[in-house]
Every structure is written in C-alpha cells, then in structure tokens.
Amino acid sequence: MLIRSSFQEVIILLGLCSHKKRLRSQRGISLVEILVAAMVFAIVVVAMVDFFHWGRGHIMEVGVRRNGLALAEQKLEELRTVNFIDAPLSVGNHGPESVQLSENLMGNRTWSVAWKDDPANGLSAFDQDCKEVLVKVAWSWELSHADTVFLKGRFYP
C-alpha cells in the first residue's frame, strides 16, 4: 500500500492526472506545466525576433532600391540639360560611374543611348526621331546577391 500511495503522489506531482484527482494540499502549477509554458514562450520569442530581423532587412533593402532609383532619375534629369548632340547623349554605352547608395554600400551607374523611331509621327519605321536612354544602377549586397534598377527615358531634338 505504501508503494501504491507513493506512485500516486508522483503521478499527481507530475501533473499526469486530472485536477479532480489532485489532493487539496497540492493545488497550483506543477513543474511540468512551468517547463511547457517556458518552452512555448521561448518558441514565440525566437519567432518574433526572427520576424523583426527579416522585416528590418527588408526595409533596408527597399530603402537602397529607392536610392538606386533616385540616382537613375538624377542621371536622366542631368542628361535632359545636355545638348542633344553632346557626348553624354552620343549613341553607345557610357559609364560606369561609382555611386553611393547608403552609408556603406557602393554601386555602379551606367547608361546606354540608342536611336529610336517615334511611331506617332507617321513617318517610316526606320527614321531616327529620338534617342532612348536606359540608365542602370547596379550594386551587390554580398558576393551572391546583386540587385539592379533600370530607368528609361526618351530625348527629342
């Protein structure tokens, strides 16, 4: 009888039986319940930290893309002030220029110029109506992760 009583007490202490079978003097939270709650809390905290880390990285990446787009737009606006026949608007590839995208991230800016036909003018498809400029800003986060933004504009004489 002594062994059976001790076994019942161990089962009650481990929380393996229902609350109705617990003795009145042993009400409260068992060690197993505390350990399970601590594990659930730890899993939730680790998941939240990982989510915030991912979110912060994504926000930083979007900010760098926005800066890259602003640098491409800046180059297009700079080229709009140049005479139509000057060297920066000569047909071909130009650059690269080194640009700063953030405090510790550098990239390259290139642009290419090509003659294009304006289909709205009604002339032949082979006439050279305007120059199309494609500005490209490229950067690399790490050796394996590169990113690029493109911006296109047309220039008329």
Describe the sheet with the most strands. Answer: 4 strands, antiparallel
Mean pLDDT: 84
What spatial order of strands do you see in the largest sheet? 1-2-3-4
Strand content: 25-35%
Number of helices: 2
Output the structural class.
Answer: alpha+beta
Terminal CA distance reads 106 Å
The 3D shape can be described as rod-shaped
Instruction: Please mark out the parts with pLDDT under 50 across 5 or more consecutive residues, or reply none.
Output: none
Order of helices and strands: HHEEEE
The radius of gyration over CA amounts to 34 Å
Number of strands: 4
**Portion of residues in helices?**
40-55%
Total number of domains:
1
